[in-house]
Specification:
Elements lengths: L1 H28 L13 E7 L3 H14 L5 E9 L5 H15 L5 E3 L7 E8 L5 H11 L4 E5 L4 E2 L3 H7 L6 E10 L5 H23 L9 E5 L13 H11 L3 E12 L5 H21 L12 H12 L1 H17 L3 H23 L6 H25 L9
Parallel strand pairs: 1-2, 1-5, 2-4, 3-4, 7-9
Antiparallel strand pairs: 5-8, 6-9, 7-8
């Protein structure tokens, strides 16, 4: 029992504290610089959406304004079997924009030498994000693709700053930074604080060599690195960048390229999002097993330390509690005290997870987030074991 306890605690300590400290120090002493310069080739924006009429109308307005000063040459929007009249709203948004900006040359479809082209692809059958992205990537023409979600607001200059990194020929993917504009509830405050911790790790990995994945809300990739992905892919923002890494390219984190969002206001909504994402990491073992190979993956150490071992943390914690319980039953007073403390901490986190739905508190958000993340990890493992992957996202 003692060795089980020791190994479990050591694994938890490494995942949550040891690896972040190690990668931070490693990047501090062995950083690999990136050559930056203005990028003249232009970019294609790719957005796959399902029933995002309100958000997509705001997003398109945001992008069309940015296109007046940034190298956005195409905007490709794929509507995945939507039922909310998004296409009508997008066409109306473009018409109004052209009236207000008569020299912008923003049109739907073909237009002689336009500054920016907007293309709408409407699909009657709902297939999921990965299938729509495959179609968008096959038709976009610019040398750099910038993939983003429908919801988040892109900061002025973000696309330009992403593209500057591609002056370095070793750079294949560049991920932007997701910033939470406001966090008022327990779930939001917990997500905001956890994301700050996550960004520290990504910045360190980027300085060292590459991040194992990108921020789906905003990332750019070279056109030649984009290959069709399986239509059942759950985490396209991990699979697509990691395939570039497998080819020897860097995947960077660019904190000056920012998009703004609001974290989910409810723990159950945040849990569903995490569960899907975490199940997608398990799924990659089937879709792209080379990612898990030290022979094929140049950042396998970061992959296992940052991504994979996190999937196992609730099982490490359970093993530690069971080991303490066994030692406590054997008469160890120390084990009895530690087991009581561990059980109390788990109970407190579970109660905070529930209470954070009703009380606006950063402390509750952080404490409840620990339970929420681990519960999502257990559910994701079950999804992986039973093969219950759903490529079509739910509103």
């Amino acid at each position: 029992m003692t060795w089980i306890l020791a190994l479990s605690v050591a694994a938890l300590a490494y995942v949550y504290a040891g690896y972040p400290a190690l990668i931070g120090l490693w990047a501090q002493f062995r950083p690999r610089p990136v050559r930056k310069a203005p990028y003249e080739g232009g970019a294609s924006i790719l957005i796959a959406a399902y029933n995002e009429g309100d958000a997509l109308a705001r997003k398109l307005e945001n992008l069309l304004e940015l296109a007046q000063a940034e190298p956005i040459r195409e905007i490709w929007i794929g509507l995945d079997g939507g039922t909310d009249g998004t296409a009508l709203r997008i066409n109306e948004k473009i018409r109004i924009f052209n009236i207000q900006h008569p020299t912008s040359n923003v049109q739907v479809g073909e237009n002689p030498q336009p500054a920016t082209k907007v293309h709408l692809l409407e699909f009657e059958t709902r297939r999921g994000k990965a299938a729509v992205l495959n179609d968008l990537m096959a038709q976009a023409t610019r040398p750099i693709f910038v993939l983003m979600d429908a919801r988040q607001r892109v900061e002025a200059g973000a696309v330009t700053r992403l593209l500057e990194n591609f002056a370095d020929e070793q750079v294949g993917v560049v991920s932007g930074e997701l910033v939470y504009e406001t966090a008022v509830g327990g779930a939001q405050k917990g997500a905001e604080s956890y994301w700050g911790y996550e960004k520290f790790i990504r910045r360190s990995e980027s300085r060292l060599w590459a991040v194992p994945g990108a921020t789906g809300a905003l990332y750019a990739i070279r056109k030649e690195l984009c290959e069709p992905i399986p239509e059942n892919t759950l985490v396209d923002d991990v699979l697509i960048p990691m395939r570039a890494v497998l080819k020897g390219y860097r995947c960077l984190f660019e904190p000056t390229a920012r998009v703004f969002d609001w974290p989910s206001a409810r723990f159950d909504q945040e849990g569903l999002r995490k569960r899907r994402t975490l199940a997608g990491i398990w799924q990659l073992a089937v879709l792209e097993p080379r990612i898990f190979s030290f022979a094929d993956n140049p950042i396998a150490f970061q992959w296992y330390s940052h991504k994979f071992l996190r999937l196992l943390t609730p099982f490490f914690a359970l093993a530690a509690l069971l080991a303490l319980a066994g030692l406590a039953c054997a008469g160890s007073l120390a084990a009895q005290g530690l087991f009581a403390a561990g059980a109390a901490a788990a109970l407190a986190s579970g109660l905070a997870y529930w209470g954070g739905r009703h009380v606006r508190s950063r402390a509750l958000g952080l404490l409840g987030a620990f339970f929420g993340v681990n519960w999502a990890l257990v559910q994701a493992a079950w999804d992986a074991a039973t093969g219950t992957f759903e490529a079509r996202w739910k509103k």
